[in-house]
Specification:
This protein is α/β, with parallel strands linked by helices. 30% of the residues lie in helices and 21% in strands. The protein has ten helices and 14 strands.
Length: 373
């Protein structure tokens, strides 16, 4: 069994390092995807449960070179794994195409579903009855430079939807991107962590989950649980093993925001994530009140996603960014970490103190800064 793991653009190498930590070898095939070979059903469940930067985990059914719709129909028709689909289970076809002869996503989806229906009914002209009350059987066809990968989504909903974030502010940072920033910051768990524009608390919550080795997906369900042959005992065994590997130590984490209401939301999200007993210091405070004397008398990590766009006056946004960058640029600064932002002020900063990472948050390109040690 081979698995395809997808992640946000720019996080593939960080995801690869996560896999190394979990004792898996992988191959990065694009900025958003990796392949893990020679795996088992237990590995599939483990990666769904443990990976922090992934979007989804797919089972690779087959691959082939495809340049015409006839070739695509034949490719799907030859598959021998149709027994995975339950009687009357609805089939959902997702597709993507990049630098390939076939460019129409609706047509690709239609051909794949038609071929699967023909395989199940024995005749492509016979319609198949679907029970809309059942969980959908999701199939993904990924075309990249005319190479087709037929995939089954073992995850279901996006993995960044952890389940703990019930209330957010405007434009919240996705959980897996926040986890990627923490993992890439080089934070030492013995040192304090600051997020001084914390919003609904995503960065600090992910940092605490990483420090305590808490599996991020313990609060949700997965698509593989509705598949034929699913064994709940294996899932429960993996969850129990994940719980046994948790690290029960306190970690000094400071998070603050100028908005009292958003701090209340952050506290609720931390409680939902099971972090109520941690050494987390919440404070209603402007980020501009922080200075090097109070912030980094000892080495520490700062990771923040400051406000941008329509959320504040442009002059206020500029002042916040200038202040945050000054904390990193000062020669006496002991900060590591970075600022996750799309603000154009990044172009005016000192290049010798930065390491750029081109990521995407929705349609917006952002840059993560990291002070070099």
């Amino acid at each position: 069994m081979n698995l395809l793991i997808t992640c946000p653009p720019g996080l593939a190498q960080i995801c690869k390092q996560e896999l190394v930590y979990l004792w898996y070898k992988s191959q990065v095939i694009s900025p958003t995807s990796l392949i893990v070979s020679d795996t088992t059903a237990k590995d599939m469940i483990t990666l769904n449960l443990r990976l922090r930067t992934a979007n989804k985990v797919f089972l690779i059914l087959d691959r082939s070179q495809i340049t015409t719709f006839d070739e695509l129909f034949d490719f799907i028709s030859k598959q021998e794994r149709s027994d995975r689909v339950q009687n009357q289970q609805p089939i959902l076809v997702e597709a993507s195409t990049h630098k390939s002869q076939l460019t129409s996503l609706p047509s690709i989806q239609s051909i794949v579903k038609k071929a699967l229906t023909a395989k199940l009914t024995g005749d492509k002209e016979i319609p198949r009855v679907e029970n809309k009350g059942m969980t959908e059987f999701a199939v993904t066809l990924m075309l990249h430079e005319n190479i087709a990968l037929l995939l089954i989504n073992s995850t279901g909903e996006w993995l960044h939807r952890r389940g703990y974030r019930t209330d957010t502010g405007e434009a919240p940072l996705k959980e897996n991107i926040a986890a990627g920033l923490v993992l890439d910051s080089g934070r030492r768990f013995s040192q304090p962590l600051y997020d001084i524009c914390c919003g609904s608390g995503t960065i600090c919550i992910e940092a605490a989950l990483i420090a305590k080795n808490i599996a991020p997906w313990l609060l949700r369900n997965f698509a593989f649980q509705s598949r034929k042959g699913y064994k709940s005992a294996i899932f429960e065994e993996i969850k129990a093993d994940a719980k046994a590997k948790e690290i029960h130590k306190t970690h000094t984490i400071f998070w603050s925001d100028l908005d009292p209401e958003i701090i209340t939301k952050a506290k609720a999200n931390a409680k939902n994530a099971g972090l109520t007993n941690d050494a987390i210091v919440f404070e209603v405070k402007s980020c501009k009140e922080y200075n090097l004397d109070g912030l980094s008398s000892q080495p520490c990590t700062l990771i923040s996603n400051p406000p941008y766009g329509q959320r504040m006056q442009q002059s206020d946004i500029a002042d916040i960014h200038k202040h945050l960058f000054s904390l990193f640029e000062a020669e006496e600064s002991k900060l590591s970490g970075g600022i996750f932002t799309g603000n154009k002020l990044i172009q005016a900063t000192n290049p010798r103190l930065r390491e750029e990472k081109q990521l995407k948050n929705g349609a917006e390109k952002v840059v993560f800064w990291k002070r070099k040690k």
